[in-house]
Amino acid sequence: MKHSFYSLMTAMALLAMSPSSSMAQGLKDIYKDYFLIGVAVNQRNVSNAEQAALVKQEFNSITCENDMKPEPTEPQEGKFNWEAADRIANFCRTNGIKLRGHCLMWHSQIGRWMYSDNPTKEVFFQRMKNHIQAVVSRYKDVVYAWDVVNEAMTDDPKAEDPFRQSPLYKIAGDEFIAKAFQYAREADPNALLFYNDYNECDPVKSQRIYEMVKRMKENGVPIDGIGMQGHYNIYGPTEAEIDAAITKYKSIVKHIHVTELDIRVNAEMGGQLQFSREGVAVSDSVKQHLADQYARVFNVLRKHRDVIDCVTFWNLSDRDSWLGQNNYPLPFDANYKPKMAYDYIKQMKAAAWPIPEKPKPNPNQQRQRRRGGFGGPQRPPFNPALAFAEQPGVKEDFVPSELNQPG
Ligand code: GLA
């Protein structure tokens, strides 16, 4: 009796000393029966030993935040720059982590050469084809899925034309989408090919995405999946809105990836440059709202694990986020420490509080935006030569000013 009491005590003491199995497990392990857990990385994340260790501990899918985009890989026609993308691809190869390719055709972060000099459709398609073939072939061994076309639909709910009026669309109409998928499939018949967009839970935009993908697929365009970027905030979307979007998309595709998940604590949402960097004091209640919104999002995603294969956070920590650390958007804070939100995701907790009421828009901010375009002051261009350094104010994309306007 005494003997077994002491054995029990010893076993308990040993358990307390060794890292408990759930402590040692990362999000990827906890979610192994649901979907891959991914992260968008920059050069520093895979080079700094502590950050690289965190990536390996928590994630089993990687996306290059910027380094595989059209302009960084082919800044001038036929002149490729593989250094940064190779470094991340090699990190994935060495550590056996899957790589999501992002992205082949996008109106932003694309060399102007792709659409300048009024090319005929044929010339433009040839440029696209050369680019897509070169990038896809190079990373064929390690990339399992590509965002082939990014953000081709408009955000304007009143627009008659559902497509974004980008230079790519102006040259070739929606044929550029079909061709991009065709070239990607030719270059790698095994990779899953995605259409990727933001505001993807908005009822009007999601319908447009749905109709476009459905029509393309009916016409034989090889689209395997829909990427839901997942740039959300603590006020929305609701579980019902996310559920409705996924339900709609899964009626036409077999694969859905959440490709760029982050949750802002300010009231803005969506893609390009429509966010504020103004300081927000992160109160305990805001921290709770963030954890709760992550809890709601993951609750819906787990429900749809039959179609969702990967959920990727857009950046490793608040320090890396394109939204700035004041937005407090990720499960890891600016010191790479897990937040309450991380625990809620990991422990699959339910939200504690209801979704907060959205604050009224600040009229001063609105006026400023109308005058100065989106997102306040113009940021300097992204400089790939400084990829290892902090680039103050350019963690997000640089978008040439005439392309800044959504839709
Ligand atoms: C879009 C793009 C991403 C990234 C984010 C902002 O969502 O798809 O590649 O540039 O904007 O960082």
UniProtKB/TrEMBL annotation:
- Keywords assigned by UniProt, alphabetized: Carbohydrate metabolism, Glycosidase, Hydrolase, Polysaccharide degradation
The record, for Gene3D superfamilies, names: Glycosidases
Q: Record's SMART domains?
A: Glyco_10
The Swiss-Prot or TrEMBL record annotates one GO molecular function as: hydrolase activity, hydrolyzing O-glycosyl compounds
Transmembrane residues, as ranges?
Answer: none
Residue span of region Disordered:
353-407
Return the protein name.
XynA
Lineage of this protein's species? Answer: unclassified sequences, environmental samples
